[in-house]
Every structure is written in structure tokens, then in C-alpha cells.
Amino acid sequence: MPTYAIGDLQGCQPSLRELLEHIGFDPDRDRLWLVGDLVSRGPESLETLRFVRDLGEAAVCVLGNHDLHLLAIHAGVRETRDRSLKAILKAPDGDALIDWLRRRPLLHHDPRLDATLVHAGVHPAWTLEEAQARAAELQEILAGPRWTDFLHRMYSNLPDRWDPGLRGWDRLRFICNSFTRMRYLHPDGRLNLADNGAPGTQPEGDLPWFDFPRRAMAGRRIVFGHWSTLGLVQRPDLLALDTGCVWGGRLTAARLEPHGAEIHQVQCPAYRKPW
Predict the structure, then answer these.
(1) Where do the H-state alpha helices sit in the chain?
(2) 213 cis-preceded (ω within 30 degrees of 0)
């Protein structure tokens, strides 16, 4: 049963279909891991959501920051001018798609592959077991009756330092930012959520989360996206898959068996200009 991990889609459904045809994907036999950010910026967010949902158990998708932003728009917390997101809100199955989306996990771990799927990363302080527990805290809220309460409190960069004593909305916001927005950390361990350039452009002393000293999950394979300026990165314990499809880059799939990832890519149209 081959498992393919695929980078950020962001509404680029035609590129997804092309890539799946390229790898000969069979939903009765194969499995997909999607790193999140199914929607936003590309032209077919609605079609992408429907397509991934209809794959059923053949696909696992974690939530990304753009997916959460869509939930916030639906809840009336934010507004949007993105036509592809508005199409979801107006669709006859829009509410059902939102309900499906908010129940996606923040983290998925497969013991058989010894691989962990997240959108942006895993905070360096967390072991796998701690990361699973932190993800479950937020998942419980998003899947429950108080999901819009969190969305009203989601938009902040604070707190920016992990403390096991954090409680309430502050704790959940930090968990959310770590799983869905994190790229760099300051030397003292605080999240730097402002810088999104490639390594080498960040402030002096700041490090990518995966290079932070004494990272608790070092040596365990983490599959993630979110960071288009980072691009494709393959290390024994790391697989970065956001290769900028919506910006005219490539959409990337990596077969996760055997342990060394087998890479497949298709060239994508440029739907947006890079900032």
C-alpha cells in the first residue's frame, strides 16, 4: 500500500489531478498524506475541498493556517475578497465542507512508517507523545460546539514562548501557531512568526524550528509544508514539501516507502505573484 505525501495545494486542483495521474494513484490501493492549506489563493478551492473529502479514507489531511482562516471567515470572524473562498461559502454543500474541514487533525502519526504529518512543524520542546497530546487539545475544541469561540481568539502572535503552565485560549493559540504558522525561533526559544524567507534571510541568531538545539523529535521523520521559500528538503528526519505550486512552482509528491522518499513533481501555472 504505497503512501504519497503531497505539498500545499492552495486551491490548485488541476495540478493535483495531474500529479495523481503522473504517479498512477489508485484510491483503492494507495494512500495520500496532505500537508494542509487545501484552500486559498488558487482558483479552485471549492473543487479541491470536494475532491479531497470524497477520497474518504484514502486521504489524510492536517489543518493548515489557510484552512483555519477559511473556518474563521465562515464563522464571521474575518472577511475575504478571495473568490475561491467565497465560492465555498456560497456552495450548497458549503456548510458540510466546513464541518468536514474543521474535524481534520493537526497531527497524524503512522507507527508503521514512523512518520509524522503536520502543516508547519512540531515545536522543538515537544516529544512525539507531547505533540500528539497538544494537537488533541486543539482538535477537541475545533470538532466540538465551542469551535467558533477559539476562532474569535485565534489571531495573535502571543504567547510566543511555550510554557506547560499555559492555560485556556493562550495555550490553544500557542499550540495552533506552532502547528500551523511556525518557521523560525529566536535564540531564547520564542516563536518568530514575522519572517517567512528562506534560511539565510532571517534575523541573526534565529533558527528554523527543525535546526533548533536539543529538538525533542530529532531523528524522527516529520513531513510538513507551509514554507514555500524553503522548498523541497529531504533529510532522514525531515521532509519539506511546499514547493510553491500556487506561485508557479511545482506540486510535489513523495512516496514514503521505503524510508528514503521517492520524489514526483509537476509544473504548476502561476496563479499568484510571489510577495
Answers:
(1) 13-23, 45-54, 65-74, 83-90, 94-102, 128-142, 147-151, 168-180
(2) no
Q: What is the pLDDT along the chain (275 residues), one digit of tens a residue?
A: 799 999 999 999 999 999 999 999 999 999 999 999 999 999 999 999 999 999 999 999 999 999 999 999 999 999 999 999 999 999 999 999 999 999 999 999 999 999 999 999 999 999 999 999 999 999 999 999 999 999 999 999 999 999 999 999 999 999 999 999 999 999 999 999 999 999 999 999 999 999 999 999 999 999 999 999 999 999 999 999 999 999 999 999 999 986 666 999 999 998 876 54
Query: For the chain, what is the largest distance between any 2 Cα atoms, rounded to a whole number of angstroms?
Result: 50
Q: Which three cell numbers stand for residue 188?
A: 531564547
The answer as to CATH 2.60.290.11 being correct for domain 3-267 is: no
Q: Is 33 left (phi over 0), alpha (psi -120 to 50) or beta?
A: beta
DSSP letter for each residue of 8-40: --TT-HHHHHHHHHHHT--TTT-EEEE-S--SS
Domain ranges of the chain: 3-267
pTM to 2 decimals?
0.96
CB neighbour list of residue 12: distance below 8 Å, 6 or more residues apart: 42, 43, 44, 48, 245, 246, 251, 268, 269, 271
46: Cβ–Cβ under 8 A, 6 or more apart, which residues?
84, 87, 88, 91, 97
Residue 135, C-alpha cell as written in the block: 494537537
For residue 117, the SS3 value is: strand
How far lies 133's CA from each of 129, 154, 191, 217, in Å? 6, 19, 20, 14
